Amino acid sequence: MKILSIETSADETGVSVVDATGDFPTAKYELLGNGLRSQIELHNEYGGIFPMMAKREHAKAIVPLLQFALEEAGLLEMVDGGHAVPTAITAELETILEREPALLEALQIFTAKFDKPAVDIIAVTSGPGLTPALWVGVNFAKALAALWGVKVITVNHMEGHILASIYDVVEDDRLAAIEFPSLALLVSGGHTELVLMRNWLDYEKIGQTVDDAVGEAFDKVARLMGLPYPGGPEIGRLAAIARQAKLPPFKNPLPRPMLKSGDYNFSFSGLKTAVRYAIADQALSDTGKQALARDFEDAAVEVLVAKTSHAVATYGSKSVVVGGGVSASTYLRYSLREHFLREHPECELYFPKPGLSTDNAIMIALAAHAHIDSARNAAAAKLMQADGNMSL
Predict the structure, then answer these.
(1) I want to staple 242 with a disulfide (CB 3.0 to 4.6 A). Which of 96, 220, 277, 290 is the partner?
(2) How does the average pLDDT of the chain come out, rounded?
(3) What Rg, from alpha-carbon coordinates, does the chain have?
(4) What pTM was computed for the model?
């Protein structure tokens, strides 16, 4: 089964082609084609994602990425003398993409050149994420379904992150045989969640942020410190220098919000505010930035580790899956491994392989395959909606 997957939830546009052999969760997956374009540089001046700009850039990038992924997969064939689309289908495409005239034109040019590719299913992220950005992918999937007569599956972005973290791209391209109950720590620019999994595809959210997500806090603190977007990598780099140099604390100890709240919820807004007060409009020296970055990262990671550890002890989790963009943090990975080696040696930790921590279309294909029975035909696909607040 060849799955064409589409991801447009935030500031990465992704299109991939994945071949799935067998049934979930023991299937073997082969990546045939993968196109990914980041908007990080465009959003850098805002210190975060500007939603309408993200929407516009998705619309510009998605057809070229579709062509790239299909060519890489060997599924794209040019039509001699051009390809005429039936009038009824043309009218349907115009209706679906009426708010995206440039995308409609790009798709019409693509369709005139190339024959229908041999894909069996179209998968698309329908939430959560930035609603304007999500709609680009959802409407594009609707248009392709109408054009090719292929079924569509809508995917929860967070489930994609969970499956990406247990997808072994090094050994045999299968999902890890994780032990249940399992716990997922999902950390990104828009989410900080603890999700209990009693079995495959069985999710119960037991904790979440009550304000800023941890990745959002990294970005906001980076902006306060005059660092580029996204904030996580640069704060991590400076913090590592401070640890190696054994720099003293920047000022007073930063708070560990909700560390002892007794539940599994998170809060990072107050930590961000504490950093703002610590700076108090003063110019930061290089060593000051390094020390403050270390202090902030220490505080944020300590809370993540402690809450996860508490949940593991309470629910008797046999494994922990860490997913989302912040899962790429070297210090978070180190801290979790050290803590679990000491406190929960029987619990297996899973992190995404390189390239799968940030948003991508590969994880959307994996999640789609898990829900293959929910595929909609082209007529039913017209009713698909984007939901920025979708929850597991």
Answers:
(1) 290
(2) 95
(3) 22
(4) 0.95
